[in-house]
Fold this sequence. Notes:
alpha+beta, five-stranded antiparallel β-sheet, elongated, 18 strands, six-stranded antiparallel β-sheet, 51% helix
Amino acid sequence: MPAVFASAILITLSIGLARVTRHLQPPIPVDRDRLFDVMALVIMVLLAGILLFFYDVTLHGADQIRDMEVARNLVRSHIWPVDSPPMFGEQVRLPPAFYYLLALPLWIHDSEGAVFIFFALLFILSAGFLWREMSRSFGPRYGLAYVVFAFPVFASVHAHSAWNPALAMTLSNVWLALFVRAIESRNTAWLALPCVVFVLLQVHPSAAPLLLGLGMYVAVHRKVLTDKVTLLTVAGIIGLTALWAVHSDAVAQWVSLQPQGAAVERTSFGEVLTRLSDTGKWRDALLMPYGIVRGIQPAIPGLAQLTGVHLLAMLVGGILGCGTAIASLTFRWVLLSAILWFVAAMAVLAQGSFWHLYVIYPWLAVLAAMGWGRWSERAKLSPRMSLGVGAGVAVLAVAGHLVLYVQFANKGNYDLSLSRAFFPRAWALAEYKVPAYTYRYLREVRDALVSHGICSRQVAGMRTMVLQDMNLRAFEVACEESSAKAAPGYFFAHDDDRADFEFTASLQPLQRVGGSAIYAVDPVRIGLGGQAVIAMRTDHRVNYMTYAPARLEEGLVIDVPPHDNAVLLRVALRCLKEHPVMQAVDWRLQLAGGEASHPAVKSRQHKYLGSIFYDLEWRLQPGPSGAVLSSVAGPLECDLSAIARRAEG
């Protein structure tokens, strides 16, 4: 059965790519101005070049690492996945089309880079395919107007990541292009369109509301239902779905998760109306491209302004498109499908997320293109004026991409504020952020450790703990017991560490990686809970993304040996709940002679997703017999990382 799914997906993909590559340059009648199509191609080449040049500057985290492992098991060990990645709190699983698409480039070259390039090419070709249909059906002005909106800044970073929502916009482009072609040609023999719909629904269920518009079109044009090609295609899809339902335990698992013996909860009409009238949710949806960029911390200079103006041009075009859609049968159906998607999505979802909105973005871009194209015709803008307007909007898109990619490549990561545009339940986690790492950065960190013979257990620092926690510890370098005990310690920190702490102030980096650095430390041998180690943490998982913290029944107790100089002690804690550890009164320094004090502490707190990270530093004078630093608040449930060195002066 998995082989049948793989074959069906491969055939569908081959047909689509063959059609796109064969017809990438649309036939242009003599009376059309070729400059519109030339400019559209230039813009696409520029944006495609940015995506491919920065192919490994794409977000890479827990979901992508998990899914790459599944795809590699398929290629290397022929372990055929039966279900999709888990969604909606791991309660929903669909057929496994995404995993087979993810595995396709691995058959050619077994590397993450092959996936990134393959998905980027698919996205580029899908945008080219939709441009072709727009330009051929409505004219080159409309094609150019679509192209300047086809590559949203933030979504483009995801479009070549190994993540299932990354393909949502790509396949939505193809769905829309085939839908436009079917409406314009009155074609009733649907082969490719149902197959693309079938694959997209498996990739991400956010596309399901688009079936409302498609279903209404089929109900009005009943000849589609009587066409033999369409019927055979739909019958094949139903058969494949039935095979999946038989071989998968996803349905039984979903049923088992429902409350037993309880009445089925029903959403009242009033609750639906409340969700539909939530202006905050509509605002987040319509401003999603700007909201995500605005949430980058620290802010990238100029990026929010570029994205905001670009989005404003798109929204104005969308308003113009809604006002003039009645003049075109095709655009009426595109507008109706988009409206139905928003109504259904907003009625069902308590909060929207950016990955839910990727699937509708191409439809909004086409509506904006229709609005600007129709307006330029009615305003009787000359070709030169129309080209100038298109070039101006395209500059915003190209500049936005370059600013984001260059900064992201230089730093290797940034944080995203956990706003409602990012996470459905962000209202409950308003103070938290999402650490976003590029694949290039993670690979460079691992390569740096390997090149210096450093294993992950020798590296201390809060940044190390965040990176490990948010990436399933998949980029760690394993330790040999002998080397881990004998080798010196290392500290990994962001460049801004020097501004708030003393530990790295006088140290020279062993190696720089993006906006971070690895420091070699001649450590003072401290004891953590009676053990002379750098880190203490648990390997027990709460779920595939989260590890349960270690439990320190007596709190944190650090033995500091006697030393002639003052000692700089650095401790990072990763907890699932808040603990009183950031003030001097939360700690006690007990000298061997019996004297006790509350030592001054420098502290910083970070909240990432569901974890709380504390970064702490002390400058201690242990005394001739050493000292013991301990927390005073009782048990701690935290992983920890600690390192100490001699202070200068």
